[in-house]
Amino acid sequence: MSAKLAISRPGEGAAGKTGTWRTFRPEIDLEKCNKCGLCRLYCPDAAISVDLVIDLDYCKGCGICAEECPKKALTMIREED
Amino acid sequence: MFEIRLHSRGGQGGVTAAKLIAYAAFLDGKYATATPLYGAERRGAPVVSFIRIDDEPIRIYSQIRNPDLVIVLDESIMQLVDVLNGIKPEGKVFINSQGGTEVEGHQTYPVDLTSISLSLDLVLAGNPILNTPLIGAIAKMGIISQDSAKQVIAETFRDERNVEAALRAYEELKI
Amino acid sequence: MLTFGTGNKAVAMAVRDAKPVVVAAYPITPQTEIVEEIANFVTEGSLAARYIPVESEHSSMAACIGAAATGVRTFTATSSHGLVYMCEMMHMSAGARLPIVMANANRALGPGWNIGAEHSDSISMRDTGWLQVYVSTVQEAYDATLMAFRIAEHTDVLLPVMINLDGFLLTHITQTFETVEPGDFIPPIATPHAIDINNPGGYGTLTPGNTHFKFRHDIERGMQASIPVIVETEAEFSRRFGREYHLYEEYRCEDADVVIIAMGTLGKEMEVAVDILREEGTRAGAIRMRWFRPFITPELNGKDVVVIDRDYSFGYGGVLAGELQAKSGCQPFSVIAGLGGQEVTYDDIAEFVRIRRPGTEHWFGVDD
Amino acid sequence: MAIPDEEFLLKTTSACAGCPSSLILRYVTKAAGADTVLVIPACCTSVIQGVYPTTAMNLPVYNVAFASAAAVASGMSEAFRAEGKKTNVICYAGDGGTIDIGIQALSGALERGTDFLYICYDNEAYSNTGMQRSGATPLGAVTTTTPGGKKDHKKDLDAIVAAHNPVYQATACAAYPQDLYNKVEKALSIPGPKFMHILAPCPPGWRFPSEKTVEMGKLAVKAGLWVLYERENGKLTITGASKAAMKKRIPVEDYLSVQGRFRKITAEETAEVQKTVEDTIARLQREVDGIC
Known about the structure:
The complex is a heterotetramer.
Chain A: E1 7-10, E2 24-28, H1 38-42, H2 64-68, E3 74-78
Antiparallel strand pairs in A: 2-3
Chain B: E1 2-9, H1 14-27, E2 31-37, E3 46-54, E4 69-72, E5 92-96, E6 108-111, H2 113-119, E7 123-124, E8 127-128, H3 131-140, H4 146-156, H5 161-172
Parallel strand pairs in B: 1-4, 4-5, 5-6
Antiparallel strand pairs in B: 1-3, 2-3, 7-8
Chain D: H1 20-32, E1 36-40, H2 44-48, E2 54-55, E3 61-63, H3 69-82, E4 88-94, H4 95-100, H5 103-111, E5 116-122, H6 157-162, E6 168-173, H7 177-188, E7 193-199, H8 203-206, H9 213-222, E8 229-232, E9 235-238, H10 242-245, H11 252-256, H12 267-288
């Protein structure tokens, strides 16, 4: 090992696939969604893309998106075992 | 090695005087060290400095126990401190003295440095400047050369009166 | 240029000549003159550095870390309580492999308050990963400071270096010394792990145990690699500037039956004791340890050994004596002397040799 | 100001679900851009980046010891400026690392005029080590070291910082990303020492469900417990949702009662919290009006 200091390099999945942390999963009802983007704005983990697609590999299921959605277009669904 | 112990009071410039004497010796081509003995000295408290002059590099850092010369910048200190402690039998004493104080058993050189400075109005922060006339006196004693004494004063003090003070002390000291 | 000044001034002038980009420091007796002189150099323009007047020693080392992390040359200075106050950052700076150079004016720790020379401050930093050199003249203070930058920044080393000089005894003594034009003696700094905006990374991130120990091991590799770098640097210094230094300095050791070992100013004064003992018919010699980290074991060849420690590890013993014993197998007469600036003369040192009892400990001024 | 799409927090950190610090950091980094170094002392953010050799942070992050962030930033900023670089140096520290152990270094760096932005994300406790009280923990809050509820008030960090007269000082809240983004962007456009104090409602620490992070921040602002403002060249401006809250507020009880950490707060303490709110609002209004 020649590195003098632990320098971590950026990459997705640094904390593993955090999608496995979820108990509840957000689901979008595209009928109700008005593309306001608040869900993406408030997602702490930037797991919602510009096109408002939720990356379920990483979404931790906090539920902020559903809570803050003004159109109630998001619902938290219990993950099945 | 020639060892000098210098007694003064805080604020009288004793620490600077020791550096200037050592610096003059350095200019003479000698090895020299000047060491202040620091404690919790404050203005007015007795202070001791040491000067060593030699033809060889000086390897000693401890205090001077057996001086060849004792310099007393303030006569009144002799009431408080045994300035002759450990002085060599042939050791000499220089005293800044108004009344020509002599020390028994040792060659004594009394010069009134204070009056010289006061007569030239050489006063800094309320204290008469003693180290420039002292340099003149030490040069007269042959411990440092006249040229080096002049250079040290010229490099250290801008005021011409310092040169005059050194010259007067040089003249007043009787060998 | 031949000049005349104190140990503190010599360090400051060496720093000026080494041209650091950032100096962050906090004043403490008896180091103060170093930072005052450097502040003067910066103000008058003879040193084009950023001087950061920090609010504590913890922050002086922290600021040096921040600056050195960007890949620039840095310097700080401290003493005693200041050094132990920055202890956390001592570990951080060495752990981050930042080649910071620091002067430490060795001074006792309270209570009671004491500003005299003692090595307990720097000795207590021995396990941080800092290189430590102890100097014994004003000239050596200047030379060792210049060399410290070259050693610390060497890509085989990349560890910080501390130059230790005895408080007052060396910081405040005025002696002759010669400054040099370093030229390319200190090559431009090139820290391979400096922050690179174009190659983002998490510096010093969470590191699991099975990786962490590899970085720790690499610190030791740097330490070991520093030995040839020190030898090479001192040889190059001698070639260019004419003054010779070694890992440790021997004095009249060739035929000696007994050697005195010490660091700092006592390591110079003891040469006078050796001369006195020789005149008495005792074949004495002296070894002045310069580098305490990395620890370099001198050749003792079965000689009687008298070690003077200006430090103490409570519940253990004199640190230098203990390390020499562990590394060389000698049974030293361990003298503890000079703590808190206690006056120790060449006569006292000669007496240590006369009364020596190998394998025992002697507290000067206590056990008499 | 339009918020750029680029993310500097890659999917994903190991932060708790609903973490306000991650949310704040998303917008801090978006506003700062790539020419930025984050200096991070011990706090949740020093842990959530990921484990060597991979990090979720797509910009340089220098991890330092707890008390040292502002001093490290001082050295870093001076070194960058000495080399002619404009790189943003941002300390991103928790409340413990700012209000308690790091306040000396912060004070020194502000006083020295360090060109940097110091951000304190405040979740009102030592959350990284499992919710011990900090100087930022509010009156009445239960933490693991105040099991009966805290008996002392939250330290007024903003007043302490204001006493240093930084060139720019602002508050923000995780619940208002646009306001937060605007302030970071503005702060970084001004040379000199800048400071931001950002409220970070912490689901596990404050004992509320993870989906309520944003809601909790909004309640704090609506109750006037957290006032959004900025102070530039000594001029105070109330921003965003706090403009309304300066005139009309919900009772603090609406905020306290929905958090498990306040389960032991007494009626007297609740009244005291309410009084503190009224005093703070009145003081800020006087400043806005130029009366003090």
